[in-house]
Known about the structure:
The protein has about 120 residues and is of the alpha+beta class. The chain is built from five helices and three strands. A hairpin with a 2-residue loop joins strand 2 and strand 3. The model has no long low-confidence stretch (mean pLDDT about 90).
Amino acid sequence: MARIRTIKPSFWVATGHMSREARLLAVGLISFADDKGRFIATTQAILGYVFPLDTDVTAKKLDRWLTEVATPRPGDSALVTLYQVNGAPYGYFPNYHRHQKINRPQPSSLPPPPDGALFEA
């Protein structure tokens, strides 16, 4: 299944408070997310998809960057919301459909986020 995702020019301003690595992670997560904006948020899944050949990217670094991506700016919402379902970590982009045009949407195989349930990294 091919996923074509769009990064709008405003993304770079909206994520300017993040480190360069966290912004790269955010772009990778956008392409990793399914058509509902959901993704598996395990360290192994993210490293395998976003940083498959980067041997210098450790779980500790990834956790730090993921925390940046999931931390809201003052007066704004976070780019990503992390949550758990039955102990398994997931993430989603709350404003995904505002920024992504899905041509042939597929149903998500991942559980939806429960209201207000955040996953602590």
